[in-house]
């Protein structure tokens, strides 16, 4: 059974909050870097999140998969856009990336279903 990505990001966010209190300068720096990299420019926000998702697959980072697929759902990403992103991640990363592409697909479905429930 695949993990619940909603639970993963909830639990990870709680642990990050603890770290924010313990190492505030580091977390402020990380947040500034994230904001700078995510700011729309030549690439729009969705394209940047698709790139982050592909890198999350390559790095095999479950919390990253959760955060970035949740963001993609909020940005209106289609399943086709996600699928093409995952195809590139698998192409570049081989079998291990295929395993995380499957997890990312499940995470996208989980967040899509949750978003549909809140708008219904």
From TrEMBL:
GO terms for MF: peroxiredoxin activity
One Pfam entry name: CMD
Superkingdom classification of source: Bacteria
Presence of keyword Oxidoreductase: yes
Transmembrane spans: none
Keyword set includes Acetylation: no
Alphabetical UniProt keywords: Oxidoreductase, Peroxidase
Domain (Carboxymuconolactone decarboxylase-like) ranges: 24-103
Gene3D superfamilies to which the protein is assigned, alphabetical: AhpD-like (1.20.1290.10)
Name assigned to this protein: Alkylhydroperoxidase AhpD family core domain-containing protein
Lineage per the UniProt record: Bacteria, Pseudomonadati, Pseudomonadota, Betaproteobacteria, Burkholderiales
